[in-house]
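User: Reviewer 2 asked us to show a designed sequence for the structure in our supplementary figure. I'm pasting the structure tokens here. Could you produce the per-position amino acids so we can include them in the response letter?
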């Protein structure tokens, strides 16, 4: 019996199907996450998992076998140096399919095909922001008065008006002291 040995031809010729599969697998390894239809994802997943299994052991033979399917040397190198070693302990199941919903134009079932250990960029950004947030409160008290004065111009203007008479009073108080000091200097010179 030949149960579960078939594949989905995806209504394409053999050459078109093979080229599409190679392109999608290359994109999957390059970006580690792609969005496509469910039927395409399930077909691409089969070949991607076989290639990852080959990449777990970096030999010349395995590189040549995988290079038959992946033409891009950078992606091939990434598969053998990064992705393969990351999946070393895992026995199959290297990819996951996440359902997104239905496409507007033709109501096709759209999914995300990604590697199991894929990390979102937003998660990376949040981790980087957390240390910055811890450092920010220390600097915040110094910056807060500047921000408050910029927000409330009226109160700042009224404060400056109140401060101006106070400065004038201090200056008038200093003037007699200055006069006294000048008088002492003139007296010392006269003597």
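Assistant: Here is a per-position design you can include in the supplement:
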């Amino acid at each position: 019996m030949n149960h579960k040995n078939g594949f989905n031809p995806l209504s394409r010729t053999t050459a078109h199907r093979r080229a599409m599969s190679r392109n999608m697998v290359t994109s999957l390894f390059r970006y580690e996450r792609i969005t496509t239809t469910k039927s395409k994802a399930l077909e691409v997943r089969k070949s991607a998992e076989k290639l990852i299994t080959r990449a777990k052991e970096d030999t010349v033979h395995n590189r040549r076998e995988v290079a038959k399917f992946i033409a891009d040397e950078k992606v091939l190198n990434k598969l053998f140096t990064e992705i393969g070693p990351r999946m070393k302990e895992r026995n199959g199941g290297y990819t996951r399919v996440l359902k997104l919903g239905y496409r507007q134009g033709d109501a096709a079932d759209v999914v995300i095909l990604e590697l199991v250990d894929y990390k979102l960029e937003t998660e990376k950004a949040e981790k980087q922001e957390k240390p910055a947030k811890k450092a920010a409160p220390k600097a915040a008290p110094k910056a807060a008065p500047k921000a408050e004065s910029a927000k409330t111009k009226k109160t700042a203007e009224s404060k400056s008006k109140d401060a101006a008479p106070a400065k004038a009073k201090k200056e008038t108080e200093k003037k007699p002291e200055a006069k006294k000091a000048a008088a002492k200097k003139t007296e010392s010179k006269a003597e």
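For the response letter, you might also mention the following. The radius of gyration is 36 Å. Confidence is low (pLDDT under 50) at residues 147-152.
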